[in-house]
Amino acid sequence: MSTEQHRFVVLLVEDEPADAHLVKAAISENHILADLRIAVDGREALEYLRRQGPRFADAPRPNLILLDLNMPRMDGREFLAAIKQEPYLRDIPVVILTTSEVERDVLASYHLGAAGYITKPVDVLQFMAAIRDLGDYWFDLVRLPHQK
Amino acid sequence: MSEQRNLRVLIVEDEPGDERLMRLALRQGGFTVDLSTVSDGHEAQRFLRREGERFGHASRPDLILLDLKMPGQNGLEFLAAVKQDERLRAIPVVVITTSTLDADVLAAYQHGAVGYVQKPTDINEFIKAIDKLGQYWFELVRLPENPE
Question: Measured by CB atoms within 10 angstroms of the end CB, which terminus of chain B is less buried, N or C?
Answer without folding.
Answer: C
